[in-house]
């Protein structure tokens, strides 16, 4: 009863930022992402009847506390679905992505865990079923079931059965590149989960965020369909800025940005002024992702590497969905 799965992170172009149900992880808005080939997690789940509790090793170290609880609670869902509630597992996971630094480790981490766990226990899930299950580990993870562009449909039902991701376009459809600009790989002070909760509960800007989603979502889908890079980039950048603006209105207020984050943002806008179509987006963390086209790769990389405070630039293409090893 053992399986290994590999899942890639995804970068949200239209952000998921807020839950209407914390326990089931039901979002307040649809979101849309691009899966990345450069960052991923590989997880092995091995169910044993000799074990009396789950054991979770991340990057070779035993995990306890909140991160452990999130994993065992998630395996409970898998145990309940399969009816094998008395089985515990050894879980070994390797993150080829910084953990909890705003590079979406929870997305690749829970997508790999869901796929490996479901397979190991003998569940035979369709992609929508796997996405729906994965959602309950980390919301952004439900989009990492698919390669390329994916949209998480928020759904309407209270039980969450209609809340899962669907594929929008496969990775081969369009060669868009993403530079991950690394300035800090340390764990963020406010997790995505805590940050969005505080924002929903206290930020007066939150309703404006929600009101702006339908337009952004319709626009970006047209942009993807027409392969209109400027349109996709401009909408992504604006959507990211609106999401981060909501955190400044929260109580207590917070921001994920560092000084170098702002420097990278300005440099990207300068590149555009100099005729290179490049656009930024930022998840819940200080690091910046820059969207660009293959023909501009060398100039974009060089420009980003030269920014004071930038420690690394990692280039990604569109990535694949779940694979089993
Ligand atoms: P990130 O920006 O990295 O997604 P989050 O705050 O959303 O940051 O989530 C980080 C949390 O995700 C970690 O503290 C841990 O609980 C969980 N996580 C990260 N990687 C894995 C993994 N490989 N397997 C299981 N859980 C993981
Ligand atoms: C800003 O999926 O990490 O990256 O559902 O609580 O695990 P939980 O949160 P998470 O939130 C991601 C927030 C975001 C935007 C996005 O990825 O859509
Ligand atoms: Co996350």
TrEMBL record:
Coiled coil ranges: none
GO molecular function terms listed in the Swiss-Prot or TrEMBL record: ATP binding; diphosphomevalonate decarboxylase activity
One GO BP: isopentenyl diphosphate biosynthetic process, mevalonate pathway
EC number: 4.1.1.33
Residue span(s) of domain Diphosphomevalonate decarboxylase-like N-terminal: 7-165
Pfam families: MDD_C, MVD-like_N
The entry's keywords: ATP-binding, Lipid biosynthesis, Lipid metabolism, Lyase, Nucleotide-binding
Superkingdom assignment: Bacteria
GO cellular component: cytosol
Span of domain Mvd1 C-terminal: 181-306
Family the UniProt entry places it in: Belongs to the diphosphomevalonate decarboxylase family.
Protein name (database record): diphosphomevalonate decarboxylase
Naturally occurring in which organism (per UniProt): Oceanobacillus arenosus
